[in-house]
Amino acid sequence: MIAAVLLAAGNARRFDGSQKLLAPVPRAGGDAPLVRCAAEALIVAGLERIVVVLGREADAVGRSLDGLAVRLLINAAYVTGMSSSLRAGVGEAVCLWPATEWVLIALGDQPLAGTGVVEALARACRGAGRERATAPQIIAPRFRGEVGNPVLFARALVPELLSTSGDRGARSVVERDPTRVRYVDFAAPAPPDVDTIQDLAALRESVRRA
Predict the structure, then answer these.
(1) CA end-to-end span of the chain, whole Å?
(2) DSSP of 29-76, one letter per residue?
(3) I want to staple 37 with a disulfide (CB 3.0 to 4.6 A). Which of 58, 79, 111, 186 is the partner?
């Protein structure tokens, strides 16, 4: 069983002062907020257990997800860094779904990182479940040699995820022991994340051209 944690609580310091997660992104059927596109991508990929961690403008971001089968969690300490949201989301996920075997960590500002990538990671973790001594504990995508998101963590690593600190999120857990990481390689470039107004404009243009 996979439980997903979608991190959507950041300060968006590099944006223009507005809440980037509410910025409209083109899609079939009309524009939708960035964070809604990210959540829908996980749902389309077949994930049924999703916790969305909210922080800045939590009420507005939460309303943008109305109608989706996700659990919302407000992290009042989001200003202390991404790890506080990671800890809150992972803790909530394993509490809600005790049978969780893998936890997927995804980013709310990466709306194109769901379908395709998530399915491939899920296939890899199902294969890992049939292994023994060589089974990986982390499954991460690698886009043209560049490690990206989202990332799957085995249940055994939940204590490490719950002990992260600062603004690096789960990256420190991935880097701690390379031998426990298995990569799924993709020939395509990494899905873009949105940090700036320029990133958003580029994303909109790439979606229109697709």
Answers:
(1) 32
(2) TS-EEHHHHHHHHHHHTT---EEEEEBTBHHHHHHTTTTSS-EEEE-T
(3) 111
| Residue 2 CB contacts under 8 Å (≥ 6 apart), including other chains | 47, 49, 100, 101, 102, 103, 104, 122, 125, 152
Rounded Cα gap, residues 172 and 77, in angstroms? 20
Classify burial at 47, counting beta carbons within 10 Å of its beta carbon; exposed 0-12, middle 13-18, buried 19 or more.
Answer: buried
Name the residue with tokens 């779904």.
97
Q: H or E element: which one contains 207?
A: helix 197-209
155-208, pLDDT tens digit by residue? 999 999 999 988 778 888 999 998 999 999 998 888 777 777 787 777 777 766
> 44: which residues sit within 8 A by CB, 6+ positions away?
114, 115
Calpha distance 125→96 (Å, rounded)? 21
Maximum CA pair distance of the chain? 49
CA distance 177 to 22: 36
- Phi, psi for residue 173 in degrees, rounded to 5: -70, -40
Asked whether the predicted pLDDT for residue 209 surpasses 70, the reply is: no
